[in-house]
Amino acid sequence: MQRQNAKSLRAPGPAATMRAMITLGIETSCDETGIALYDGERGLLAHTLYSQVAMHAEFGGVVPELASRDHVRKLLPLIDQALAEAGLSKADIGGVAYTAGPGLIGALLVGAAVGRSLAWAWGVPAVGVHHMEGHLLAPMLEESAPAFPFVALLVSGGHTQLVAVEGVGRYQILGESLDDAAGEAFDKTAKMLGLGYPGGPVLARLAEQGRPDIYRFPRPMTDRPGLDFSFSGLKTFSLNTWQQSTQTEQDKADIARAFQEAVVETLAIKCRRAMEQTGMTRLVMAGGVSANRDLRARLRELAEQRGWQVYYPRAEFCTDNGAMIAYVGHLRLAAGQHEGLGFGARPRWPMEELD
Ligand code: KG4
Ligand code: ZN
């Protein structure tokens, strides 16, 4: 398998330069098939998404082989749908971007194979995009996009990271989770409370019924310096609290509320530290958990107190989507990056390796 890295990128040929206007973005890193068309001048033209949530729900989590097979079924119809929505034909596409990692290897390879093949058939360049760079730059799709530099809080199902962002491709990881990602902690706690899959949004909704100050959960790793996180203890704490409770629906909601408060407050404490440490004044949040209303409100409150600005994508671009991949692909293609005829995918891919 060819590894996708800076060295595999080369300058675009003449065809690419002439037609590098509209980028097709393909996202298949996990359980969402996302497609988008991004125009360098007009912005986002169309985006389509198919979520496999219903299929995986009966198993209580993502089944990688089923995910890959479903991406195979959905990709081409979704591309046709996006083209129709934008009133375009495939001849209008100037470049193809696909998620090359990190993620589930089978799922990634479906998007990479389809993306690379279409680019070859259409005679346009292709580029593999880093999924977390997609999340990181998703707020750029909004009207009030942040200017560089900024601190980014990336909170998804697979990652929790604080990143100092100086510009596109200039990322320094300030801290990250040593065990479960924030989204993973939401999902596992929700599963344990019998809330089903995917747990994050369900647990967040239940937390609204919870009463304040019934339980107080720890804020992990906030009693020592540093910007790393550890969320796995919170799910054990939730389980113990549940087992010791009278196990009513109200208990469940109270636990959901205390759990969410602990995650939100821990993230807020580390964001404050990261902002103070870097001296930056713009805070960006992205990734699935940034759709969480309490987290948004808490970070807005923090920013207001300190005179900082806070930015996040619209809810549908917090979770996985094709728009963020089309956007990053557009930036990279416009900067002259693209790949040879091979393709690859990287289930693990440190963001600091990007250029
Ligand atoms: O970014 P994303 O769509 O996929 C990954 O790259 O992982 O994030 C999915 C994660 C899941 O863990 C999901 O439970 C969580 O984001 N999530 C939420 C909310 N919406 C999605 N967690 C808490 N509150 C939410 N409202
Ligand atoms: Zn994601």
In short:
With 355 residues, this protein is of the alpha/beta class.
List keywords for this structure.
10 strands, binds zinc ion, single chain, about 350 residues, alpha/beta, 11 helices, five-stranded mixed β-sheet, disordered N terminus
Fold and architecture overview:
Helix content is 42%, strand content 18%. The chain has eleven helices and ten strands. It has helices at 14-19, 53-57, 64-86, 105-122, 131-137, 182-192, 199-207, 232-244, 249-278, 293-306, 323-334; strands at 22-27, 32-39, 43-51, 95-101, 126-130, 150-155, 160-167, 170-176, 282-286, 309-311. The strands form two sheets. It has a five-stranded mixed beta sheet with strand order 3-2-1-4-5, with helices on both faces. The longest helix has 30 residues, at 249-278. The two termini are 21 Å apart. Zinc ion binds next to helix 5.
Number of beta-strand segments: 10
Widest sheet, order of strands: 3-2-1-4-5
Give the bound compounds: 5'-O-[(R)-(carboxyoxy)(hydroxy)phosphoryl]adenosine, zinc ion
Sheet of most strands:
5 strands, mixed
Q: N-to-C SSE series?
A: HEEEHHEHEHEEEHHHHEHEH
Write down the overall geometry.
globular
* Class by alpha and beta content: alpha/beta
Distance between the termini: 21 Å
Question: What portion of the residues fall into strands of 2 or more residues?
Answer: 15-25%
Helix content: 40-55%
Low-confidence stretches: 1-20
Helices, by number, come to: 11
| Global Rg | 20 Å
Mean pLDDT score:
94
